[in-house]
Amino acid sequence: MWPTVLAGFFAAAYTGFLFGQCEGCDLWQTPLLPLHYIIQAVLAGGALIVLFPASLGMTPHLYAIGRIVVIMSLLIHLMILLGEVAILHPTDNARYAAYLITHGPYRALFWIGAVGLGGIVPTVLIITGAGVVWAAGASVLVLAGLFAYDWCFIMAGQRVPNS
After folding, report:
1. Considering only CA atoms, which of 71, 46, 48 is closest in space to residue 121?
2. According to the model, what pLDDT value does residue 163 have?
3. Do 49 and 62 meet the contact criterion of CB atoms below 8 Å apart?
4. Residue 86 and residue 111 in contact, taking contact as beta carbons nearer than 8 Å
5. pTM to 2 decimals?
6. CB of 153 within 8 A of CB of 115?
7. From CA 152, how far away is CA 37, in angstroms rounded?
8. What CA–CA distance (Å, rounded) separates 97 from 158?
9. Which of 79, 45, 70 is nearest to 129 (CA)?
10. Below-70 pLDDT ranges, the chain
11. Are 74 and 123 in contact (CB under 8 A)?
């Protein structure tokens, strides 16, 4: 299992570095992107542990650790996510792409999908000690929220004209 986990970390970090190679998309030129993708990989892995504990052979102790991993990585993900759109970006293109995410055509998917249903609601569900069914629902919301955020981030970065 551990070689697979290590390969997942490297694949996530490499994805962040690949986005950094896209010089035409200023929104993707942040040095924190590899770290953010590693956090997202940990979050997705924790969500899968909480969603399918029996299938993965999780003991109650490991399941509890999985819930803690989801909470911690979800809070870090939300801080990075909100920081990414709130900071003053160095170029006009990056500022415009961040504007497209927070106030433009991706705002509903970002605020409702990624932040609300994919971040805040699952955090509350898991912190309040919800049962297994609610925790599984929170995991599904987390995974959907990750998809919503990455969709917004990728599409907004490409929507800004290069010239």
Report:
1. 71
2. 63
3. yes
4. no
5. 0.90
6. no
7. 15
8. 8
9. 70
10. 54, 130, 163
11. yes
